[in-house]
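Hi there,

I know you've been waiting on this one. I reran it after we fixed the sequence typo, so this is the corrected version. Both the input and the resulting structure follow.
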Amino acid sequence: MTVLVTGGAGFIGGNFVLDWVAGSGEQVVNLDKLTYAGNLETLASVAGNRRHVFVQGDIGDRSLVERLLAEHRPRAIVNFAAESHVDRSIHGPGEFIRTNVVGTYDLLESACGYWSGLPQAEKDAFRFLHISTDEVYGSLGPSDPPFAETRRYEPNSPYSASKAASDHLVRAWHHTYGLPVLTTHCSNNYGPYQFPEKLIPLMIVNALAGQGLPVYGDGLQVRDWLYVTDHCSAARRVLEAGKPGETYNVGGWSEKPNIEVVKTVCALLDELRPRQDGTSYARQITFVADRPGHDRRYAIDARKLECELGWRPAETFETGIRKTVRWYLDNPEWVANVRSGAYREWVTRQYEGATT
């Protein structure tokens, strides 16, 4: 038995692949374009493992995808492939449209053609799991109830709009062509192997380098935080028992304002890797101009996944963030290798001169 994972060299996809190989006897075919956030070093522990087949390529390359499907005959496709950073989508939305919308369309077409030709038993068992985001729902007020699966879409950034479009395509391919799809909407992931332009690893890396810790606006934007291995276990559970055509929200039950997250990271670093001068890393916090269209609050209601499929996160924010900080402290080589010249140039362009 085989599954095809797209975007499996990225942060969440890479963690999913590592968990899959460690906990399953099935082969995983890993298709990743290896853009700036794709990193084969994340997969170093499964290099040479015959149950992991890595292929560099684009989900929009139909001839490649169709060849992989015909050759490996997967029982499922798990689609993590996406451009995912809001700030990058504001500066360059075109790539987000090409990958998240057109790429998803191409992948659906390849999957539908493959699925249609399967013997009936394999056709009935096949699943297409599409990994989406809570950002498609828009922004919540301070007292609004968390996002449920029935909430209407109100995307506010080019990134979330492109993901919303991909969700609609996945839904349409189910209702029009019968493709057995599943969709998950996750909250903010954090954990090992996350590219250091996202909030938590950026704070860790900058703090250790003695650089400023840039916090947008007043830092009171609220997010629900989900440890990445919990997301992986939720995806496995949805793939195993989810009902085709359904969507499931995946959250960590851990709403935190960004500034509280940053101060928690600083406190852990104070404990685990104190500054030489004995002061707190919190003195490096710098408030910068808020980004355009910055959603104020996200919160996930994951009760459907809990009640129908019996899933809950194993980590609290307190246990997950400690594991995360410790991982970055223990893996400086991984961090140094992903912080290429292009990465440094992007961070400088994004934050320099934006101090409030």
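Quick highlight: The chain has a mean pLDDT of 93.

Best,
R. S.
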